[in-house]
Each structure stands twice: as C-alpha cells, then as structure tokens.
Amino acid sequence: MDNPLYVTLARLTSLQRQMDVVANNIANTSTAGFKREGTVFAEVVEPLAEEGGSLSMSSDAATYTDLGAGVMAETGDPLTVAVLGDGMLAVDRGGETLYTRDGRFALSPDGELVLLATGEPVLDAGGAPIQVPPDAAQIAIAKDGTVSADGLLLGRIGLYAVATDGLERVGSGLFRAAEAPLPAEQPRFAQGFIEQSNVNPVIELVRMIEIQRAYERGHALLQAEDDRINQVTDVVGNTN
Amino acid sequence: MRALEIAATGMLAQQTRVEVIANNISNVGTTAYNLRRAEFADLLYQQAQHAGDVSSDTGTVVPAGIQLGLGVRTAAVSMQSAQGTLRQTNGELDLALEGRGWFEVQLPSGDSAYSRDGSFKLSADGQIVTSEGYPLVPQITVPEDARSISVNADGQVFAHFEGQAPQELGKITLASFINEKGLEARGSNLFTATQASGDAQIGDAGTEGRGTMRQGYLEQSSVDIVSEITQLIEAQRAYEMNSKVITAADQMLAAANQVR
C-alpha cells in the first residue's frame, strides 16, 4: 500500500542530489578549466505480487562529466595556457598522475612549472616535470606545447587523450583516470589564454527551476497520498 | 540539502572576486601596481558511488559513479606580473623598470623588501630613499654640491658637478625571483620574499633576464579599468545566480515542510 509513497520518495531524494549538482555547477561558473557535471537518471523496476504488475522507480544512476570546451579568455599572463581541442594536462601528485584542463601555472621556488591552484608539477610528454632556469626573462609556450625560455628549449607540455569513462573528480580541477591514457594527437595550446568554466548559467538556472517544480510536485503527491490514506482509515475504521 | 552550503561557497568566492577587483580599481593610479586576480578551484567531491565499482557478478563496472561536488574555493589571489606603461615625469630620481626585476629596499627592521616603484627621493643626508624613507640597497649617497644626477640603463648612478667630470656614486642592482607570484605584498608597493617565491637573486640590470632602468619615467599601474568593470559585472551576476540557488533550495525545503 505504501508504494506510491516510496516511488515519490525515491524521486525526491534524487532530485535533491540533482539540485546539489546544479548548485555546484553554478558555484563554479568562474573556475577556470571547470567541467560541468550532469546527472543520469535510470529506472529501477521491481516486479509486484500480482500477475504482470511491476513498480518503476527513478534513481540517479550516475553523474557524468561534460568535457565540452569552455570559452577562451585572454589573460595576458605568459604562465597561463588554454588547451584547444581535446586532451588533458597531466600533473604529478606524490607519484600518482592526475589530469586537468586548468592551465593556470606558476613556478615553484626550485623552478618547476606547477599548477597555480595546487602547486603540483605539470608533466611533459614523457611524464617528467618541466624545469625553468632561474634567470629566464621570458617564458614562451608554443602552439604545440613546447616550453622555452629566452630561446632555450625546456620541454613539451604533455597532453593526454583521457577517456570520460571512469573519470573521477578529486577537486581543484583535477581528475583521476581509470586507465593510463595515451598521448593526445596533435596537441594545440594558446599561451596567455585560459579556458573558462564550461558551465552555461542559463541552462543551469532553467534546470534548477525544473528541479524545484518537480520537487514541489512530488511533495504535492505525497500530500495527496497521505490524505487518501487518511480517508481510507476514516472510512474503513468508522464501524458505526 | 547540500545545495545551500554549495551556493554559499559560490557567493563567498564571488565576494572575494569583487573585493580583489575593488582593490585593483582603487589602485589604478598607484605607481607600478601589479594587477591581482582571484583564482578559483572546485572543492572536494563526495563519492556517493565510485566509478569502477563492480556492478554485477559478471564483472561489469559502474562507468561513471555518483560524484557530488561541494562547491568552490579561492585557490589564490595571484599577482599578474605584467609590465605597466611608462609615464614620463622628468624627475631625476624617478626610475622605471623595463622588464623583470625589483628594487631592493631596507625596512626599518633591517629586512629587505622589494618594489617596482621607482619614485625615489633624497633623505636629509643625501641618501636615495623610497617615498616612505626606506633606503635603497645598495645604499647610494648623493653629495650636497651635486648639480644633477643621472642614472643609465644599467643602473649606474652619476653625480654631475659645476665644471667637473661626472663622478660615479654607485650602481643600483636589481633583485629577481623565480616565482614572482609567490611574493608577499606588504602594502606601500613593497613585497617580501617567501618560501614560495624563493630567495632574491641580486644582480646588475640587464643581466640574467633582468630588465633595464629608465630615468625620468615611472611605471604606471597595470590595471585596465575596462577589463576590471567587465569582471565586476561578471562577478555580480554570478553572485546573483548563487543567491537564486539558495532561494530555490529554501523553497524546496519549505515544500518539504508543508507536507503534513
């Protein structure tokens, strides 16, 4: 008898989570290299006791990462780079390789090219950090990712074709890949630019309104169902 | 409902951004002011269901998992070391730096601070000092009877006298840092070295990547008002969007409260 309540409850719970995902997207509209998250709903079907009957509930089966490109913005800072096309930069976190689209760099005190957000070294095409000499006046990053300082070749920024399957977010714009990715074909970079967040605020706000209204409808259904059960107990229980 | 806290982190981040922009705009006339930018990064993710978990006894795995982000954080307020335009002042102790490098000055505590503001003055005893009266390092004293002072591109300081050959008083050296973004701002256009910036490397102007000096000019603030105002509009709208999320989440909770 409680099935309508549970179906609604399943829907409401997943709507709440979807709201959290939308809130996180909106909170990150100004985060360079941020990739928006989406939710996937799936139907959970349960057979019922009577012949041919089944009960269908909705469940948020997964969140996925939308790797679509963000808008490029000019920074004029030589230590920012935007990746054009597909592929991700690799950084080293204590021996583990993580991947990111965030091309805001800085130099560590010992001259390594590091991520500004976390201070972790950016890896070159061979998986080694890139060392910049202390007396470098001008750091240039070419279209193919070649880093040079005053004409001296320092290395090439690695770009990897990371698969979306099994991509795990670890925060600070970093991702953990399920399998070690292959180097991307034809890497292309733009120095002095950053890739902005790929969150489209209008779409997120519309989605938010949809979620909110669906949530309110769910509660109206709960209310109606509660009233119905009340009436049933009144009518059936009234033996006079 | 996490949405409330997540949107709050978004509002806080945009607030920080507006504060940084306000500081940039108020320093549009500050000599050698370096533009600052608030840089954001996403917060940690809660893994409600791990990608790669085995989903059946035939060995299939969950391809995407459920990952719930917890909002945004300010990762850095970084200094953009862009060259400001040079403005001619004709002041003989106005020095502009073209290229990388910092003037070293001595704080009253004896520690070194670094500045790109080259609007120097003379102290009562003829020393070259900053606008705050902190002496330039290496210390250079100008004789009382000098008619004029000239500084060349390499930082050599000469005093000129009536009817005499010019006399070299010393050489202004420049400091450079491997990571300028790691310098700590101390106000009054001064910076100090930190673990992140690395130690100062002192050397002559025009060597090892350091820039050169130009007498009679000052480096202007690198703030571009148009770009700041654009950023301000963006920040304000993003702030409003986050507040909309809070309103919506609040209304959802209100709907939940109205049941029964």
Uncertain segments of chain B of ≥5 residues (pLDDT<50)? none
Estimated helix fraction of chain A: 25-40%
Which regions of chain A are unreliable across 5 or more consecutive residues at pLDDT < 50?
A: none
Query: Share of helix among residues of chain B?
Result: 10-25%
Share in β-strands of chain B: 25-35%
Strand arrangement in the largest pleated sheet of chain A: 13-14-6-5-12-15
What is the total domain count of chain B?
A: 2
Largest sheet descriptor of chain B:
5 strands, antiparallel
C-alpha Rg of chain B, in Å? 27 Å
Summed up, the domain count of chain A is: 2
Distance between the termini of chain B: 20 Å
SS class of chain A: alpha+beta
Oligomer: heterodimer
What percent strand of chain A?
A: 25-35%
- Provide a count of the helices of chain A: 2
Overall average residue pLDDT of chain B: 90
- Return Rg of chain A in Å: 25 Å
The strand count of chain B comes to: 20
The biggest beta sheet of chain A is recorded as: 6 strands, antiparallel
How would you describe this structure to a colleague?
- The complex is a heterodimer of chains A (240) and B (260).
- Chain A has 240 residues and is of the alpha+beta class.
- Chain A folds into two domains: 104 residues, no CATH class; 124 residues, no CATH class.
- Chain A is built from two helices and 17 strands.
- In chain A, the strands form six sheets. Chain A has a six-stranded antiparallel β-sheet with strand order 13-14-6-5-12-15, with no helix packed on it.
- In chain A, helix 1 packs antiparallel against helix 2.
- Chain A is elongated, with a radius of gyration of 25 Å.
- In chain A, 41% of the residues are buried.
- The mean pLDDT of chain A is 88.
- Chain B is an alpha+beta fold and 260 residues long.
- Chain B folds into two domains: 115 residues, no CATH class; 134 residues, no CATH class.
- Chain B contains two helices and 20 strands.
- In chain B, the strands form eight sheets. In chain B, strands 7, 8, 11, 15 and 18 form a five-stranded antiparallel β-sheet that branches. Chain B has a three-stranded antiparallel β-sheet with strand order 12-13-14, with no helix packed on it. A two-stranded antiparallel sheet of chain B has the order 1-4.
- In chain B, strand 7 and strand 8 form a beta hairpin.
